[in-house]
Amino acid sequence: MDKAIVDLCWPLARLGEGIEELARQAGLSPESRNRIAPEPLQQQDIADLSRWIEWASDRLALEAEPIETPVSQFGQLLRNVSPAVLQVKTGEESQFLLLLKLKFGKLLLIGPDLQVHRCSVDMLRAAICEPFEIPISAEIDHLLQLANVPKQQWQQVRAVMVRERLAGQRIRGCWLLRLPPTTGFWRQLSQAHLPRRALLMVTVFMLLYGMEMAGWALIGQAALNGRLDFGWLTAWVLLVLSLIPLHLLGGWLDSMFALDMGRILKKRLLAGALRMDLQSVKHQGAGQFLGRVMESQALESLALNGGFSVVVATVELVFAGFILAYGAGGQLHLLLLTGWLALTLALVWRYFKRLQEWTLMRLDMTHELVERMVGHRTRLAQESATRRNAEEDQTVQEYLNASKGLDGAITPIIGGLSRGWLIIGLIGLAPAFISGASSASALAISLGGILLANRALSGATGGLAALARAGIAWTQVSALFHSGSKKPANEAFLTAAQIAGASTTHVTTKLIDASDLVFRYQPQSDPVLRGVNISIYKGERILLEGSSGGGKSTLASLLVGLRKPDSGLLLLNGLDSHTLGESWHSLATEAPQFHENHILTGTLAFNLLMGRQWPASEGDIQEAHALCVDLGLGELLERMPSGMMQMVGETGWQLSHGERSRIFLARALLQNTQLTILDESFAALDPESLEKCLNCAFERAQTLLVIAHP
Ligand SMILES: Nc1ncnc2c1ncn2[C@@H]1O[C@H](COP(=O)(O)OP(=O)(O)OP(=O)(O)O)[C@@H](O)[C@H]1O
């Protein structure tokens, strides 16, 4: 490896300091004083590197996204991924490069001397791809010799051959540092320079209107003074032409702003949706969520378009106010314009209230519709035909009435306000016109002001109506937005051995230790679980029986960390949920009951291996295939034209009840966790399949808890 690159490498022991420096120089963590420096990882724990980098970044209120790419595309990756941490293998040791950014075609790297150094993309690419390329280069050179390729073409041909040979190999060991979507929204906006861009946008539009008005003043004055010759016209045309690049700049700034704002907002809402507590998700139902998704899309487009129109209209109104004040109408015109604006706001408020009522009704209808669609078969089979549509007419009638009210509120806003202002503006000009006291130029200025205010009002009314709709959408998605914020982790880093309860200082054979657990679904309701004590030792096979509704599935969800107990102590490998954090899920998993488990639309392989790294390795796919055969699904796999890559789910191959239940079982077993809970996973199986599946579970699960009604 090039000596210049070796000098830029950071040792593992200083990586925490390096990440902190990288984040600081990349402007990702301005408030460095309040952060806690992550403890370094030791070289012997290198297997935990990826988790450690993610944990250390979390400590700095950042997110480290692991990125992998085919070797052939690594150069491209280097150009696009920054700031990033890159792993470099130097002998047995792992060292690291800190990539700050790409500037004028060169990469900027932070060295251990804390200085920024420049380096070419090719040089860095060669250094990191070396371990992949060296083993095959001798063989390729031999081939080139045999093929009598002229020496001067070797470099070129070798590069192509290396690329071809390494096409299937992927490089790991690259982590992109960025602000997580859970960071404060304002900080994300400033990081993307959005406030600055908004200010620039307003300035461009102010300039645009200033110039536009100057143009009209120029031509108007020349016409009124009778000096409209070729020179004046040329000056006017030049002014108008110079508006074109400004218009383009304004449009570009506007779309870039909208894109970035939309991206940040979407990421935040998605993060919120994924972090929502299981209970509230269940409580709201699929229909409500569908409604929310629709509202979140509306929020983005309406808030941006509406907000932008209102800003532009405000600029126009300020200019119109100035012009009117200087015109023949003077104070009277200003007064009329203020009154008209007040009327506009009042009408928009009325529209907002009616829209609120209408939206709630629409969301309820969406919810009901989804529920009816889901339960359609049941209704056809069970519900009396006469009752089936009984309530629909009344609901639709109420919805129609609300829609009529909404139309009544929007019509004057869209159609009437700007046109009405034209009439009011002209009436305001009448006294000056009739009395003849004002000059022709003052009348012309007033007329220009009225027209500009008319344009502003039509933009403002559309914009305000869109903002009102965005406001309603916000009330629907604000919970998602707020649940997307999170504080950085405070827990100490745990190595894989510590999590597994097998580190040198802490060895435990007790996998689950629960005492006095209490859980209730609603704060005011009776507990479903009360005073539960249970100990599960590693390697045990346990059958959990009990009366229906006794709380077995609820207990399972506590043990796999999907729910938290209201009180009591629950330890996994001697560690509580606060200490283990997300790692709880890598230790304990369950195959939930049939009605709570799903085959997702995707390949069979994805459905089986979704708990592992995706895209899956060849080895993972073979393991999943072998397990399916053990569970008696071999014949099904043979029938499927694409085998493991067969599309399944709603729109794919329709699996039978028993097939699904075996895929759910395989999915849980393939996670290879220390504790596997199977919640009534065998209910749909015939005795022969049941025996096969049970044997498989006994063989594969490290510790097994089976919930069943034998
Ligand atoms: N969201 C909820 N709100 C209130 N009560 C709930 C909720 N979910 C479940 N319960 C109640 O909690 C109790 C325990 O349910 P759980 O599903 O854990 O029982 P179970 O022992 O697994 O039953 P089964 O053997 O019938 O599957 C039941 O009485 C159930 O009605």
Automatic annotation (TrEMBL):
It is a multi-pass membrane protein. Gene3D superfamilies: ABC transporter type 1, transmembrane domain (1.20.1560.10), P-loop containing nucleotide triphosphate hydrolases (3.40.50.300). Residues 512-709 form the ABC transporter domain. Keywords: ATP-binding, Membrane, Nucleotide-binding, Transmembrane, Transmembrane helix. The chain crosses the membrane at residues 198-219, 231-253, 302-326, 332-352, 421-452. SUPFAM superfamilies: ABC transporter transmembrane region, P-loop containing nucleoside triphosphate hydrolases. It is found in: Cell membrane. GO terms for cellular component: plasma membrane. One of its GO terms (molecular function) is ATP binding. This is ABC transporter, ATP-binding protein. It comes from Methyloglobulus morosus KoM1.
